[in-house]
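> example.struct
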């Protein structure tokens, strides 16, 4: 089986889908691995390192046309779908609920497409869970960004010149990204509070040294994959009222609330932002999926009239591209290894497998996922 890895073409993307260490392991399994020349340039990995691992070089067009399995990070450009080998397998983030035309094109061209967003959050699939690995890094990056932009330090400091009180950080959402943000802010010495609609995560928040903010929203919970369920308009209003006081006292607010396959909910209104202290920082981690904060803009830092800075930077894991690439490459390798047939030396689609049941979006010309 020939496995191809093309370069990422999304503007500003520095992450790389597959690293030489993963290439080496696939070669030892009997696979042929072809990469597009310059694949690792953005993170200072030369073509020679890939060659040393056993990969061969190719131009993009030939790579796409000849690969039985294509590994990427970003979703493929729509115009490249027809260039893929008919009957081949394609693995990457696909955003299938919002990319109807892309999914239809994959089915039309008889491509079996596996969406990395759809990998289930189970113990068995943990090594393949790229959403979690990238969210983990994003949580770290948000805190570092906030610390760099805040005009005060995070830890309490007792000096002959006086005592400096610790920064107050409020994190909304205690999923993978939120928990890493809590842990990072605590390591830097901040006083951290966190809120989540799922009461089940209170223990995890406290275990990291943060205070869990309780707001009575009535019946909430999480999906079978561990995602927060969407709130009713009444619950959202209760949540905002409960959070407004905490936000007003915070130096940094980080929002992480996202709904899989849907627009992110607004959790910070303009009125709530207007009550915050001048000089405080808000980082909207959901800005790419609609935003949690009224007034946030993709890849912009907005200064409000009352001196609050709203940061809406996209692709936060890309800020630490080397480690993000390392983690994603390991996720991909774990997925390929799970379905590798040793005798045939090929990736085998086992349609009855629970992981593929959730992640296989198109197969045999059919759309297996309802995108509407």
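> example.seq
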């Amino acid at each position: 089986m020939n496995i191809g890895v093309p370069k990422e073409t999304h503007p500003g993307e520095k992450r790389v889908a597959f690293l030489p260490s993963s290439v080496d392991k696939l070669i030892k399994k009997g696979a042929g691995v072809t990469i597009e020349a310059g694949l690792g340039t953005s993170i200072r990995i030369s073509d020679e390192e890939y060659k040393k691992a056993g990969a061969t070089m190719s131009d993009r067009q030939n790579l796409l046309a000849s690969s039985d399995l294509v590994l990427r990070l970003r979703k493929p450009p729509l115009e490249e779908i027809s260039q893929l080998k008919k009957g081949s397998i394609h693995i990457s983030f696909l955003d299938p609920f919002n990319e109807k035309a892309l999914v239809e094109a994959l089915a039309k061209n008889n491509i079996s497409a596996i969406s990395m967003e759809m990998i289930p959050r189970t113990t068995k699939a943990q090594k393949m869970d790229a959403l979690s690995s990238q969210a983990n890094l994003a949580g770290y990056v948000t805190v570092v960004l906030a610390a760099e932009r805040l005009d005060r330090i995070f830890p309490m400091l007792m000096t002959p010149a006086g005592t400096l009180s610790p920064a107050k950080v409020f994190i909304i959402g205690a999923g993978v990204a939120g928990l890493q943000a809590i842990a990072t802010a605590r390591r830097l010495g901040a006083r951290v509070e966190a809120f989540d609609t799922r009461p089940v995560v209170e223990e995890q928040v406290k275990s990291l040294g943060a205070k869990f903010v309780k707001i009575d929203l009535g019946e909430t919970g999480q999906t079978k994959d561990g995602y927060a369920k969407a709130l009713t308009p009444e619950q959202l209003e209760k949540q905002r009222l409960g959070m407004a006081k905490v936000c007003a006292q915070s130096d940094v607010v980080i929002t992480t609330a996202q709904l899989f396959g849907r627009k992110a909910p607004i959790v910070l209104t303009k009125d709530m932002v207007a009550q915050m202290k001048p000089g405080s920082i808000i980082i909207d981690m959901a800005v790419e999926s609609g935003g949690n904060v009224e007034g946030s803009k993709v890849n912009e830092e907005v200064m409000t009239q009352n001196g609050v800075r709203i940061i809406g930077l996209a692709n936060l894991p890309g800020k630490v591209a080397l480690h993000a690439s390392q983690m994603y490459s390991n996720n991909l390798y774990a997925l390929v290894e799970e379905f590798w047939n040793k005798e045939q030396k090929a990736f085998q689609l086992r349609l009855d497998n629970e992981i593929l049941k959730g992640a296989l979006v198109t197969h045999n010309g059919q759309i297996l996922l309802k995108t509407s």
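> remarks
Residues 150-314 form a domain with the Rossmann fold fold (CATH 3.40.50.720).
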